[in-house]
Design goal:
By secondary structure, the protein is an alpha/beta fold. The protein contains four helices and eight strands; from the N terminus they run E-H-E-H-E-E-H-E-E-E-E-H.
Length: about 170
């Protein structure tokens, strides 16, 4: 199974920015990565009135949009699918970043801002990213330390280190 790392933290701590920046760092290193975002309060993927919106409104269980450089599948569920099932759908990547799902078990990087509360992540906590170096029981990084955080994750998950030269 593809390694999964959770990016956890309270609202407005910079989780999305961290995932975006880590994706860029890993892509430059030659890795194939995926990002999963938990929208705990729901979301609208489609624009009201568009063709695909009409298909969903009509009751289609899946709507697929195909273009010259992408494919998007909108799959409708009666209830939120388990994260493990979502991760199984993600293929051909070396690492999955998951933003949110802080209650799911698995390795987590906590994003902390000065003066904000910390989460209770227990043994799932593998690293912390904060405004400045923190004293903690896990390795700590700042947003300027992303290459070091990426190297930490490569080692933590024992990812292939020569990906950039492997011809993928």
């Amino acid at each position: 199974m593809v390694p999964v790392v959770f990016i956890a933290g309270y609202a407005n701590t910079g989780k999305t920015t961290l995932v975006k920046n880590l994706v860029q760092v890993f892509k430059k290193m030659g890795y194939r990565v995926a990002a999963i975002k938990h929208a705990a309060h729901g979301y609208e993927m489609d624009i009201e009135g568009s063709d695909t919106w009409h298909y969903c409104q009509a009751g289609a269980d899946r709507v697929v949009v195909v273009g010259p450089a992408s494919l998007t599948m909108h799959r409708l569920y009666e209830q939120e699918p388990p994260l493990k099932d979502v991760c199984k759908m993600v293929e051909d990547v070396d690492l999955i970043f998951v933003e949110g799902f802080k209650r799911e078990p698995g390795p987590k990087i906590e994003v902390v801002r000065e003066g904000k509360e910390r989460l209770s992540l227990g043994d799932d906590l593998i690293a912390i990213v904060g405004d400045k170096s923190l004293t903690a029981a896990a390795p700590t990084f700042t947003s300027d330390d992303l290459p070091q955080l990426a190297e930490f994750l490569v080692n933590y998950f024992d990812l292939e280190k020569s990906v950039i030269f492997s011809g993928r």
